[in-house]
Design a protein that fits this description.
- By secondary structure, this protein is of the alpha/beta class.
- The protein has 2 domains: 111 residues, Urease, subunit C, domain 1; 294 residues, TIM Barrel (Alpha-Beta Barrel).
- 36% of the residues lie in helices and 25% in strands.
- It has 13 helices and 16 strands.
- The strands form 2 sheets. Strands 5, 6, 7, 8, 9, 10, 11, 12 and 13 form a 9-stranded parallel sheet that branches.
- Helix 3 packs parallel to helix 4, helix 11 packs across helix 12 and helix 12 crosses helix 13.
- It starts with 8 loop residues before the first strand and ends with a strand.
- Bound molecules: zinc ion.
């Protein structure tokens, strides 16, 4: 892996970054006038209150914007970019009516390239700097997705969606074609972009995957140390379909467990309708759950109980789940996570939600030592957000960030200190 060397540079602005509190809760560090110094390898060298003459190099003054870590979207579907807002749910009906017909279009490379460009533009405009992505089942479209991520300079983990049953014939790819195609994509893209890009093993969900397909996928993940992402227990009808398809398993989670897909690098999206046994097993293996509350409200899938994960110290990431999620903006997901918790009688502090969308999600996807906060030693993935002038102090900033995102615009984004986005009014 090579990392391009550039002269160190510094950024001046207000600064807000998450902190994990000793008791397990979340807090923030806020500086009213800060200097963020990035070294020649794109790592954060220093975060200090600004002092004149403290840095002998170029300083980009971004005041009055607030510098904060870029958002991480741990679950998003690239081929659903254009079907956001298709209110044809619940889940299985929505897949049949809205999603599968659109995913068929991604067999055309030209169409896939066009939407891949729209997808990365939407992420950038939302302040997302890292995404964990489902592609379609088409290798060509997945190649176009990686090309677009590379061109945009984003950090991304993405995979070819695997499905070989219970889906339209045009999307169904048998395992003896899908696994070699996935292996080719691993060779081409895993570690590309100076390590910003990774390939993830991506079975859609157990109802649309045969046991041989999942077993072969698990071997490929093991061979290359790849992250695994899939869906689990989003709706009761889907859980029933998984049990019908795989009667040899004791429950939904056991399908993934027995075929070797449940690992310490597995991201399980949703996890709304899980038993205590399943939660205990997730904790034992060290897998993570991706909470997608905006999608869950839109499709009427149910409400995940965050307390079930936290009681077992299961890492929880946050995902937009576009196109069932109604926005690429992770601030919308934070706000929906607040509403979801409120339905369970819990009031999540905005600092907790901010932590989950940044450091918490980085931890859950295995990048917690690399990104997620603005601390020395981490890679400098950050955004500059402009708030109204009357919004002062950490508490007010967090309230506006999470609950009034229309008042706070993402102006700039940086990956490893390199500018990748600038807002055009
Ligand atoms: Zn999803």
């Amino acid at each position: 892996m090579t990392i391009a060397h550039r002269p160190p540079r510094a950024y001046r602005g207000r600064l807000l970054t998450p902190l994990a509190a000793p008791g397990g809760g979340a807090a923030v560090r806020y500086l009213d006038d800060a200097l963020l110094v990035v070294d020649e390898r794109g790592r954060i060298a220093q975060v200090e209150p600004f002092a004149l003459g403290a840095f002998r190099g170029p300083v980009l003054d971004l005041r009055p914007a607030v510098l904060m870590p870029g958002f991480i979207d741990a679950h998003v579907h690239f081929p659903q970019t254009r079907v956001i807002g298709s209110a044809s749910g619940p889940l299985l009906d929505w897949l049949e009516r809205s999603v599968f017909p659109e995913e068929v279009r991604f067999r055309d490379d030209g169409y896939a390239a066009l939407v891949a460009g729209e997808f990365t533009s939407r992420l950038l405009a939302s302040g997302t700097t890292t995404c964990v992505v489902f592609s379609s089942s088409c290798p060509g479209a997945t190649d176009q997705l990686f090309r677009a991520l590379l061109r945009a300079g984003l950090r991304g983990i993405a995979g070819l969606t695997l499905m070989d049953r219970n889906c339209p014939e045009a999307l169904c790819v048998p395992h003896d074609e899908a696994i070699p195609a996935a292996r080719d994509l691993v060779q081409r893209w895993h570690g590309a972009g100076d390590g910003l890009l990774e390939f993830a093993i991506t079975p859609r969900f157990a109802p649309s995957c045969s046991r041989p397909l999942m077993e072969a996928a698990a071997r490929l993940a093991l061979d290359h140390g790849l992250l695994v992402q899939t869906h689990i227990a989003e709706t009761l009808a889907e859980a029933e379909a998984a049990r019908r398809e795989h009667p040899w398993a004791r429950d939904y989670l056991d399908v993934y467990d027995r075929v070797g897909l449940l690992t310490g690098r597995t991201l399980l999206a949703h996890g709304i309708h899980l038993s205590s046994r399943e939660w205990d097993r997730i904790a034992e293996v060290g897998s993570s759950v991706v909470h997608c509350p905006d999608s869950n409200f839109f499709l009427g899938s149910g409400r995940m109980r965050l307390a079930d994960a936290r009681a077992r110290a299961v890492p929880v990431a946050l995902g937009s789940d576009v196109g069932a999620g109604r926005s690429f903006d992770m601030r919308r997901s934070m706000s929906s996570a607040f509403d979801n918790a409120l339905c369970h009688g819990e009031r999540l502090p905005p600092a907790d939600l901010f932590f989950t969308a940044t450091q918490g999600t980085a931890d859950a996807v295995g990048l917690g030592c690399v990104i997620g906060s603005l601390d020395p030693g981490k890679e400098a993935d950050f955004i500059a957000v402009r708030f109204p002038d009357h919004v002062l102090g950490a508490s007010e900033l967090l309230n506006h960030l999470v609950f009034a995102p229309e008042t706070a615009s993402v102006q700039r984004s940086f990956i490893r200190g390199k500018p990748i986005y600038s807002h055009q009014p």
